[in-house]
Sequence to fold (458 residues):
Amino acid sequence: MVREENVKLMSKIAIYEKREGKQEIALSGYYKSDYVRMNVLKTVVFATIAFLAVAAVVAFYKLDYILANIFKIDYKSLGLGILLIYAVWVLIYWLIARILYAWRYEKARPNIIEYNHNLKKLQEVSEREILKAMKGVVINDDFIDF
Amino acid sequence: MTTLLTFRNNIKSFLGNYDFVITPIAKGIFSFLVLWMLNKQMGYFSALDNGVLLLGIAFVCAFLPVEMLAGICSVIVVLHSIKVSIDVGLLALVLVLVFYCAYMRFAPKTGIIMFLIPILYSMKLVYAVPILLGFIVGPTAIIPAIFGVVLYYFQVGLVDLSNVLATTVDGEEAVQGYQYIINLFVDNKFMLLTFVVFACVILVTYIIYRLSFNNSWLVAFIVGGVLNIVLFLVGSVTLLVDVELSSVLIGTIVGILLAVVLQFCKGIVDYQRTELLQFEDDDYYYYVKAVPKLSVSESNKNIKHINSKTHN
Fold:
């Protein structure tokens, strides 16, 4: 028998899974610190790729100059300069990623709580129905695999 | 005003009811226009200059998230650039790669702005962009807007380069495409001025728009517009670059007018959608249509007067 209460709950759950839940449910599998750290690490990797790509273009553009002055270039100061720029670049991305992903986690938290609450409610309703069908006989929890 | 608001509510409820049809159609048309304009602007890779192919891609885009369109546009830009010269193709690849790594990972939905800017340049409406982005997207739009301007100058360089390559006779020293393009970027003061002005206008428009006094939106658009004109003028005088004043003026006015219209329509976009859902439990398959509860607009109210008096 189709129960209106169940359909309402299942619809709410399905709507959430179809919209925000697509991304937010994945978050619920992590602690906040783990989620932020993992994404910060990914961001640092991508920021490094972007930096290397730009550095390669600059080096390619200055290739004539580099080849002409290959023995005159002060590699120590050049390396330090590049490292300094890279450090600032990564630091900016690290900071942005920390703030952004922490904010995303906090934003998703109430939705996930409500989603879990709805799931629990649906489970309770189903349990009640089964009990009713069994005419009040208390059944062993192991019998039903929720 | 009441009529306009009623009209807006009617559109909102119409969109809410037929969202599952209207969104793919709108996305398909938008994708086709973007792809078509992009191909028209570049058009070096003749295989892509095929209406049926573009229609096919637009049809697929209609059912994909909008960030996929940005990805497809990136591929198209790279393919056209490769056709001009391999090294320029690599440069285009680096440009889209850096854009993805540095920005699109964080905000994929607004990535398409990068590909819209060159299109707006060709329509002479680019000076309207910062005001619109300031209130629709906010400060995060500064980065795709800057990349969009870079892409525009990349396209301009590509046109020049292809002309140069076409006139180069065999045996002459080959022109190095990537150096030709990068030289255009390095000495381009107007491009730098555009970066700064766009960033300032987007930021100021956004900040004023978010303030909580009456009609802050109108003040934001006007201040943003005036700032747009003033900064371009000051920049042209201090950096000694030619700014096409008529384009700036017309673009800014169009931007303000469009912003006012969009501000009115803004409420329409966040309509509640009718959802078509499918799920199952142990006993049944459910196909549910969840219709949002909406307030009834004035024109849809059907008032029936019932008089207690009886006619003799």
